[in-house]
Each structure stands twice: as C-alpha cells, then as structure tokens.
Automatic annotation (TrEMBL), chain B:
Keyword set, alphabetical order: Cytochrome c-type biogenesis, Membrane, Transmembrane, Transmembrane helix
UniProt record, GO biological process: cytochrome complex assembly
Name of the protein: C-type cytochrome biogenesis protein CcsB
Primary residence: membrane
Keyword Chloroplast in annotation: no
Membrane-topology descriptor: Multi-pass membrane protein
GO cellular component: plasma membrane
Organism of origin: Nocardioides gansuensis
Length: 546, 308
C-alpha cells in the first residue's frame, strides 16, 4: 500500500531462477504497487459476503435461522467460512499479505526518505525551459544580484535553498535550487504505518478483550463472574479469571413512551438506576455508588464498561401443580419480538406432579383483540396499559430429564404434547395481572402475579481501543499531509549574455500528483515579478501534459 | 411558529427548491443548446447564451438558499430541535444540499461552469427521489441517536458523500471525454481529460479524509458508546469500510503505472457505487443492521432490541 510517485513496478519472471532469486522475485512482486492495489481491491471484495450472509459474531440467532432455511447451502458455506468471514482463512490471508506488502514498502521508503531529508535540493537541470512550467526574462541587473534576491525570497517562503553560484563552482554554478514540501512523504509514511498501529490495537482488543451480556430483572443484581453471564464471548487469549470484581443492583428503571406523533409507541429516555461497587469481594468491599445508566452513557468501572442496550417485560408467574405445591415461580423474561414489545416467553415446570407442565406464549403489554375474523390479537403499544399473557400448555416430557443443556427461551416440544380442552382445541391460558387459571385434569393452576421489567446489560472490556484510536488519528493526520502538502522544486538560473544583459530562467516542478499547475505558475510568476527592470517576460505555453 | 408549521414550511421549501433547481436546469439547457451551434474553442461572454449560463448559476444559488430553509425547517420541526439528518429522507436532503454547496464553492476556483447542468439535474433528481419515496414525517430521534456524535458523525458522512458524488461526476465525464472525438457540443467543450482528472482527484482528496473521519474515527467512537463495541461488522459498517478501501485504492491507483487515468477513474466509480449502495441498497439486503434508522420501514429501534 504505497503511493510511490515513480510507480515501482514488478519485474517479469526471468527464465532461470535459483531459490534465492525466486525469493527475491516473490518479495518484489509482493511489495510492488500493483500487488498492493490488487490486494486492496480484493479486501473490499472479500468483505462483501459478511454483509449479506449472517455472521456468527454479529448475530448468532440469525445464523441458525438462516441455516435452518438453507440446509443444502449450509455445509458449503460452513466450509468456506462464510458465517465467520472476518476471521476466515482467506480474509486473514488477504489482509496479512497486505500488511507484508505494506511493511515491504514502508521500510525501504523510510530509508529513501531519510536520505532525501538530508540531501540538498538537486542542481538545476541544464535546460530549464524544457520543464513544463517555466518563465524567462531579461534584465540589466547582474546575475549575482538576481540569484541572491531569488534565494532570499525562496528562503522567506521556507524553501530549502542551495545557491550553487555562491559556494561552489561546477555545473549549475549559475543557478539557485530550492525545494519544499518534504512533509508529504512523512505524512504518507505515517499513514501507512498507522494502518499497522490500528491493526495491532484491533488485534489486542480481539485477543484479550471480552464481551458479555446479561438480562437483569429490575430489583435484582449482577456480580461480575463468568457464571452470571447469559452469553459471554471472550477473546482467544482472554484469561477467564481476569474479570474485575465489581457488582451492581438494578434498583429501578424509568421509561417514558411517546403517545402521539409519527413515532408514537417509541420508548424514550430509558434510564436504569444502578447501585454498584467497584469491588465486591468479601473483605475488600469498596463504597457503594450509584449511576444512571442510559443508552450512549456507559458506566466505566476500571477498564470494563457497562452498557444498557435493551429492556423488556418479565411477568411474574406462579405455577402450582396438582398437589398445590409451587412448581415454578418468579419473574419470567419474555423477549420482545417487535416494536410494540409483544414478547415471547416460555415457562418450564419439570417437577410438577402429577405431570410436567410447560407453557409457551406471548405477552401483550397493551392487549387488543380485533373483532372476530379480523386477524390475531396484538399489542397496540409498548407500555403496559392493558397487559395480558396468553400461553399454550404442554405436558409429557418437556426435555429436561436427560440433563442436556437447553435454552430457557425455547420449549422442547419433541416429546411433549399439547394440553387440550374437552372439544379438542388446544388449552390456552389468558391471564391479566392477578388472574389464576385452573389447568384441566387436575394438573394444577397458573397465576399471573404481577409485572416486572428487565434490562439487557452488555459488559465489555476492549483493551487496545485507545491504540486503535491513536492509529486512526495518526492515519488522518498522515493522510492530510500526504494529500495536501505539495512537494515542489524551483530553480532560477541567471547568465550574463554577450551584450551585457542578464538572461534569467525560472522553472518549477510540482512533484505532487494531481496538483493544480496554477499554483506553481503563481510561484514562478512571483520570482519573475520580483526583479526590477524586466523586459520581455515570457511564460510557457500552458499546455496540459497527459 | 409551531412544530407543525415548521414542518409544512420545510415541505414547501423542498418543493420550491425543486422548482428553482428545475428552472436552473432549463437555463443551463438553453445555454448548452446555444453553445452547441458554436465551435468548441469559441468562448461566449455576451449575448443570450452567456446570459442563460449566468442565470442558471444564479438560480442554483437561490435554490441552495431555499434548500437551506427546507433543512432548517426540518430541524426546527422536531421536538426537541435537532440537526436535520436523522433518517433517509433528511440524509438525502442534506447530501444533495452539500453537492450543490461544494459545486458552488468550487465553481470559480476550478472553473466548473461545464458541470452546472449535471449537478443541477442530479440534485433535482435526488430531491424528487427524497420527496416521492423517502419522505417521512418529522419524528423524534430514537434513544441511540440522541448523541452529540449524531451531529459530527453524520455531517462528515454527508459532506464526504457530496464530495465523492461530484468527484464521480468528473470521473464519468473524464471517461466520456477521453473517448470522444466530438468537435462540437457538450463533450467538446469539457476541459481536457487531464484537467477533468485533476478536478476529480481534488474532490476525492477532499472527500477521503472526511470519510475517514466519519467512518473510522467518529463512527467507532459513537458505536463504542451506544453499542458497547467500536467495530461490530454491522452491514453499514462493512460497506462503509468497503467504500473506504475502494477510495484508498483509487488514490493508490493514481500513483501506479498502468492504472493512472482510465483505470483510476473506473476505481473511483466503483467507489461511488459502493457509497450509494451502502446508503440505499444495503437496507434491502440486510435486515440486521443496527443502523436501522435508515430502515425501509423506518422502525428506528436501534439499541432497544435484544439479540440473545
């Protein structure tokens, strides 16, 4: 990835190669401008599948849903790593090659730049008028004075100036050379280097960081140990015991709802009130503090950050079995399925007697039952205006007996059977807060005791994030330098003619690609315009060079 | 003024700006129809044709002012007041506004008279698309969008989009001009290919750092605050990254032998395609984007959804 004005090119393959030559040839190919360019375009191309195929790291649920829908494609995609594009072999191969190419480019160029920094501006070419931008004039002023004044002017403009006429005889002795804009290449190198810095920061975060989520019912708490997380994605080098020992309680949760306007139904200003301690280990407890956790306002504890990323309802349900014993009880997390917070949830009471009880259904915060034949019930609003839980009842084996792990949000109905009413319709319990429904056949009863809320809290540690940030800031600074600093050279030559007049040639070379020739012309004109007693100023025909 | 009357004002201003842009387009068409009859190297500074050109520029300036009114009205209509780039409709309004602004700002310096008809036609089309397909009533922002980063992240993305769009127009014209042997007419009167290439480069060179700032600095900072992770491989992020890489390749190609000129222009156009695809197309391909303010259904549920 280098922007080399000379466009270093890969050589073609010679007929006979020793191992050493082959190595050198490969290296030269890899670090050539063209290869870097092709790798860049490949990187862009390779990133595309990750935006179309669901990604394991982004949305594991979407991946499994997609895999269920495409049973034939799934094995092929899995082989190609398409569910995890950004850690796949081929994606990594492209960016690692790009990095190698980049290092192979910046190391030699830094050396070249280092030499160029200390070099004097090159001597004036023999024929200044052959340069695309030049001007000539004659004057009665002696050449020395013309050159001295030009050198002073250029120095004032912060050019690095060499007046060969004054300090050394030889070719170009009658000319002033000046150069400026050395920082462009520095910016260019900084930009390329910063790509490596960003990558290091990104890799550190990916290897040593972690990200976990937990759903906490309001009123309950969380302490930062692995077992408390619902989902936990550690970096590959993350040490599992390295969690900061904080804990918090969600004491309260506020939310307001827009009741009018085009965004009616939207939840606003949700705030989770936390009591937290930075250290909860017995004997080390720090003082308790509180924090209002909001979207965009994470809580930082040490190097870990706590984010509020979602909320929902947890109806408190009690299931009593046939003997009247409580077989299940407590707030049950229902996951929202749409904007109205219509939510889906599951209740499992495997120890109920005489038969296991499983419930599966929907929670409607604002229940609306359309007239007969006009569609299904729905939730009209996200706030709990008219809450109702509507669930189907299952019995038999709900799949908890064999000890395999199960999601708490899915009811395994493979060996369970629906409980039916006398007329053969499925038995549905519809409950408002405070309601109790008796189940048929003496199975027991279900009570909707009340409504709690839950918060989805995301907890993450991202080491190296400031390295990555510093990297991109350096990249931007380098980029600005490499795009907007114009490296350029100017030469002024003055010779006394046989007739006693002084012939002066001024020429310039803009070494930036895509620079506006107008600005160089202005600089040349300034050098010309500065001389007194000018005759026949002539500037080059401004012909565009292709 | 009430919020509702601000919104009405904004809608009327969009319509009015559309009409004025249309008149500007007509003036430019009259101008170029007149120029067609003359040899390409003959400059016209007086008479009806030159008048039509100047009128087109004046009308573009007036349209830009009406365009500002539309944007201000949009921001004032929201409760609380905010920057007018909270959804697709507003993004299109702001983006096309910046296209006009960049064109007008560079008109004199780069002698962009030849770009007038194309820029005006483009902005007019963008306004029509916005008004017909993308229009949404003013709505309060979702929780995740309530952040100072909305101002800085989105405005830089909008400005870069404007600059890349103008750069892309130059690249298309460069490719056409390069093949054209016309002695009269629009193509014949365009600047020489190297000059077009240079304007194109200057636009991209301006847009690229701004895009870098939007996508790789402010975007991740905001993402970190709102979603707990500074880079999520969200489809919008992926495509913003792809756009960034392609434009980096464009800048790189201009310095590579064998890729200068024509191939670099093609790379720039690929960049523009990825940019616009990211703006509109990806919303139809992926429903999982957390940038769902831009969703086709406008559900705006960013950061309230649970993905467990």
């Amino acid at each position: 990835m280098s922007i080399d004005p000379t466009g270093r090119q890969a050589s073609s393959l010679p007929p006979e190669l020793t191992a050493r030559e082959l190595g050198r040839w490969t290296w030269r190919q890899l670090t050539s401008m063209r290869t870097a360019l092709v790798l860049l375009l490949l990187l862009a191309l390779a990133a595309i599948p990750g935006s179309v195929v669901p990604q394991e790291d982004v949305d594991a649920l979407a991946v499994s849903r997609w895999q269920d829908q495409h049973p034939t494609l799934t094995p092929v995609y899995e082989k190609l790593g398409l569910f995890s594009v950004y850690d796949s072999v081929w994606f990594s191969a492209i960016y690692l090659l790009l990095m190698v190419s980049l290092v192979g480019c910046i190391v030699p160029r830094t050396a070249v730049y280092w030499r160029a920094l200390r070099a004097r501006p090159p001597a004036a070419p023999r024929h200044l008028t052959r340069l695309p931008e030049h001007a000539t004039y004659t004057t009665s002023e002696p050449p020395e004075e013309v050159l001295t004044r030009a050198a002073e002017l250029l120095k004032r403009k912060r050019y690095r100036v060499v007046s060969t006429s004054l300090d050394q005889p030889g070719p170009g002795e009658d000319a002033v050379s000046a150069e400026k804009g050395y920082l462009r290449e520095a910016g260019n190198l900084a930009f390329h280097l910063s790509v490596l810095v960003v990558l290091v920061g990104f890799a550190v975060g990916g290897l040593f960081g972690y990200k976990g989520g937990v759903i906490v019912v309001v009123g309950q708490g969380f302490s930062n140990t692995l077992t408390q997380y619902d989902d936990f994605v550690p970096g590959s080098l993350f040490a599992g015991d390295d969690l900061e020992p904080f804990c918090f309680d969600v004491t309260d949760f506020d939310v307001s709802w827009l009741t009018e306007g085009p965004a009616a139904g939207q939840a606003r200003r949700f705030v989770s009130h936390l009591d937290y301690r930075e250290d909860c280990r017995q004997g080390h407890e720090t003082e308790q503090r509180n924090y209002d956790l909001k979207v965009n306002h994470p809580l930082t504890i040490g190097s870990t950050e706590v984010f509020l990323i979602g909320h929902g309802y947890a109806p408190v349900i009690t299931v009593r079995d046939g003997n009247g014993d409580v077989a299940y009880g407590g707030p049950t997390i229902f996951l929202p399925t749409d904007q109205t917070f219509q939510s889906f949830g599951v209740i499992k009471a495997p120890d109920a007697k005489p038969a296991q009880i499983g419930l599966e259904g929907t929670f409607y915060p604002t229940f609306v039952l359309p007239p007969e034949g006009q569609g299904l019930p729905y939730s009209a609003f996200g706030d709990a205006v008219n809450p109702l839980v509507s669930m189907l009842v299952y019995t038999g084996d709900i799949g908890l007996d064999d000890g395999t792990a199960q999601s708490v949000y899915v009811l395994d109905k493979a060996k369970a059977e629906p409980v039916e009413k006398a007329n053969g319709q499925p038995f549905r319990v519809d409950l408002r807060p405070g309601d109790t429904v008796e189940l048929p056949d003496g199975m027991g009863s279900v009570t909707f005791e009340g409504l709690e809320r839950w918060n989805k809290i995301q907890i993450s540690r991202t080491p190296g994030k400031l390295v990555a940030l510093a990297g991109v800031v350096l990249a931007l600074a380098g980029l600005l330098g490499s795009l907007f600093i114009r490296p350029r050279r100017l030469w002024v030559r003055a010779r006394r003619g046989d007739d006693g007049t002084t012939y002066v040639e001024v020429a310039g070379l803009d070494r930036a690609s895509g620079a506006d020739p107008e600005r160089l012309r202005e600089e040349i004109a300034a050098l010309v315009g500065d001389g007194p007693d000018i005759e026949q100023p002539a500037t080059a025909a401004h012909k565009e060079q292709s | 003024m009430t919020d509702a009357s601000w919104e009405t004002l904004s809608n009327q201003a969009v319509a009015a700006a559309g009409v004025v842009y249309f008149l500007a387009l007509l003036s430019h068409l009259v101008e170029w129809a007149g120029l067609r009859r003359l040899p390409a190297d003959e400059q016209v500074t007086t008479g009806r044709t030159a008048m039509a050109g100047r009128l087109g520029l004046l009308l573009t300036g007036i349209a830009a002012m009406v365009h500002v009114v539309a944007l201000v009205g949009r921001g004032m209509a929201a409760d609380p007041n905010r920057v007018p780039w909270g959804n697709m409709y507003e993004f299109t309004l702001s983006g096309s506004f910046f296209v006009t602004v960049i064109y007008l700002a560079c008109y004199r310096r780069f002698r962009l008279a030849w770009m007038g008809p194309i820029v005006v036609a483009f902005v007019l089309s963008a306004l029509m698309v916005a008004a017909i397909w993308l229009h949404d009533p003013v709505a309060p922002l979702t929780e995740a969008l309530l952040s100072p980063w909305l101002v800085i992240h989105v405005v830089s993305a909008v400005i870069a989009t404007g600059a890349f769009t103008i750069g892309g127009i130059c690249s298309v014209l460069y490719l056409l001009k390069e093949r054209s042997k016309a002695e009269r007419g629009y193509l014949a009167r365009l600047p020489e290919p190297p000059a077009l290439d240079r304007v194109s480069y200057r636009m991209h060179a301006f847009g690229f750092p701004v895009w870098t700032f939007a996508v790789l600095i402010t975007g991740p900072i905001w993402a970190h605050q709102a979603w707990s992770s500074y880079w999520n491989w969200d489809p919008k992020e992926v495509w913003a990254f792809i756009t960034w890489v392609v434009y980096a390749a464009y800048l790189h190609a201009r310095a590579t032998v064998g890729w200068k000129g024509r191939n670099a222009a093609y790379v720039a156009l690929v960049g523009l395609a990825t940019l616009w695809f990211n703006f509109i197309g990806i919303n139809y391909f992926s429903s999982s984007s957390q940038h769902s303010y831009a969703g086709v259904v406008g559900d705006g549920s960013t950061a309230t959804e649970v993905r467990s």
